[in-house]
């Protein structure tokens, strides 16, 4: 016959400690409150970025389709004529301004746009020559 153990007795071979839900004990009232979501700025930023992508596509199309245009951009950069490089890139019909940096290895073109007076979107393209 098996001996009967008192489950709350420390003399039994296996003593089971009561389980406490520690996480919920200490975090019951500390649930963070987030503000209501308003995706307006997010959707406007996405739309503005699409415009940047279209401008980038126009620049890349012109550079890849016209060796003469690519040569003029490279030649102006080689002679450190930053304004001429910007003027050439803007002559592709883009709607946003482009910032240009170049070195002997390539060119970096950065375009930015605003929505609701906030600087929201940046697109950088690094091309090697």
Describe this structure in words.
The chain has a domain at 48-128. Strand 1 and strand 2 form a beta hairpin. With 129 residues, the chain is an alpha+beta fold. The mean pLDDT is 85. Helix 3 (67-78) runs antiparallel to helix 4. The chain has helices at 22-27, 40-65, 67-78, 82-90; strands spanning 98-103, 106-115, 118-128. It has 4 helices and 3 strands. The termini are far apart. The chain is elongated. It has a 3-stranded antiparallel β-sheet. The longest helix is centred in the middle third of the chain and has 26 residues, at 40-65.
Shape: elongated
Number of strands: 3
Number of helices: 4
Ranges with pLDDT <50 over ≥5 residues? none
Structural class: alpha+beta
- Give helix % range: 40-55%
Which whole number gives the mean pLDDT?
85
Terminal CA distance reads 91 Å
Give the neighbour order of strands across the main sheet. 1-2-3
Largest sheet: 3 strands, antiparallel
Range of strand content: 15-25%
Radius of gyration: 32 Å
H/E topology pattern: HHHHEEE
InterPro entries: YuzC (IPR058870)
Pfam families: YuzC (PF26344)
């Amino acid at each position: 016959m098996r001996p009967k153990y008192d489950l709350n007795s420390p003399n039994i071979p296996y003593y089971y400690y009561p389980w406490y839900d520690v996480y919920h004990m200490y975090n019951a009232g500390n649930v963070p409150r987030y503000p209501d979501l308003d995706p307006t700025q997010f959707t406007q930023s996405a739309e503005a970025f699409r415009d940047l992508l279209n401008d980038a596509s126009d620049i890349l199309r012109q550079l890849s389709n016209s060796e003469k245009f690519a040569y003029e951009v490279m030649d102006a950069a080689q002679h450190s004529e930053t304004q001429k490089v910007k003027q050439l890139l803007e002559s592709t019909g883009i709607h946003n301004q482009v910032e240009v940096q170049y070195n002997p290895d390539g060119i970096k073109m950065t375009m930015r746009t605003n929505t609701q007076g906030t600087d929201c979107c940046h697109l950088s393209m690094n091309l090697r020559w």
